[in-house]
Amino acid sequence: IDSEDDLLQECISSAMPKKK
Amino acid sequence: PTPPYLKWAESLHSLLDDQDGIHLFRTFLKQEDCGDMLDFWFACSGFRKLETSESQGEEKKLKLAKAIYKKYILDSNGIVSRQIKPATKSFIKDCVARLHIDPAMFDQAQTEIQTMMEENTYPLFLKSDIYLEYT
Predict the structure, then answer these.
(1) pLDDT by residue (tens digit) across B81-109?
(2) d(CA B46, CA A6)
(3) DSSP character for A18?
(4) Residue of B nearest to A12 (CA)
(5) Apex CA B86: angle with CA B40 and CA B49, to 5°?
(6) Helix count and strand count (H, E) for chain B
């Protein structure tokens, strides 16, 4: 279950804009 | 130069293109109990961007598609699930069940959530204390 959540978090972060 | 917080008022995309904007909008959505909408929106974008070329790419995609489905769509009482049309939910359920994983499989659901934010939570955010205090 943890790894599923990690995968989801990683996916969400990957779509966020990078710090300017 | 235009301060970032004024740009946030131009469009939802301007807001979601700025880390501080996202942070403040998320704080607001959490207060309103709909923080999942924003996470779902970003999860859909991230899913679409996943590289197929990387090793175990397909397996990872399937796992991720299942995780997104389980967390946001399967629970019909969840805020995201309640905003997505039944036909769109069936389509995603079918994709997952048939292991038919497509980069665009969440696009329609993302659009529906985005429309909801544009018409509802985003205008409310611009009028909220949390935004006004920030500015």
Answers:
(1) 999 999 999 999 999 999 989 999 999 99
(2) 13
(3) P
(4) B43
(5) 30
(6) 10, 0
| Token pair of B9 as six digits | 């008022």
Q: Which residue of A has its CA nearest to B44?
A: A12
Which residues of chain B have a CB within 8 Å of the CB of A5?
67
Burial zone of A9 (CB within 10 Å; 0-12 exposed, 13-18 middle, 19+ buried): middle
* Residue among A17, A7, A12, A8 nearest B42 (CA): A12
Segments of chain B with pLDDT less than 50: none
ipTM of the complex as predicted: 0.89
What CA–CA distance (Å, rounded) separates B135 from B131?
Answer: 6
**Residue B105 vs residues B83, B90, B98: alpha-carbon distances, Å:** 17, 11, 12
- What's residue B55's pLDDT? 60
Query: What's the CA gap between B103 and B36, in Å, rounded?
Result: 21
Mind listing the pLDDT tens digit for each residue in A1-20? 568 899 999 999 999 998 65
Is the Cβ pair A4, B19 closer than 8 Å?
no
User: Do the Cβ atoms of B71 and B35 come closer than 8 Å?
Assistant: no
pLDDT value, residue A1:
55
